[in-house]
Amino acid sequence: MLIAIALTPRNQIAGHFGKAATFAIYDQQGQLIEQLENSGSRELGCKHKKILQRQLAALNVTEIVLGNIGTRSLARLLQAGFSVSRVAPRTSLVDFLAGGVTKEALLSAEQGRACKREKGACGCGCGSKKSAPAAVKVGMLTPIANGLGKIGGLKL
After folding, report:
1. What is the distance, to the nearest Å, from the Cα of residue 11 to the centroid of all Cα atoms in its chain?
2. What does the alpha-carbon distance between residue 30 and residue 53 come to, in Å, rounded to a whole number?
């Protein structure tokens, strides 16, 4: 049984799963097994979260400890069989490993944090809903006139 801890560059529990700088992988005895870097690249969109999930599964991680996580990412991790726990963000790694920190088990996606962004549940636009058309302003072509180039010899 291995545990992955989402960390900031200052070795504190990361406030968000997808934005963690690294994931420290520990065994049951508290020995560091591996450090997994989070690419978190904007070019990848939310795919980097899926890549992290595959990497953690390949390392046989069974539990993930973090500060916060979105509802969709949490649902994906729970469905994949991971045990996910939340602790206070910015808790030091030393305090967590010493056992003086209370963990909250996350058992359903609703326990995750709701998305704050407009584009969709992950913020990168994948799965985003179509937005309402922008309001027509004076001087703009109306939707009816789109595609027309000339009317009665006048250029639009």
Report:
1. 19
2. 22
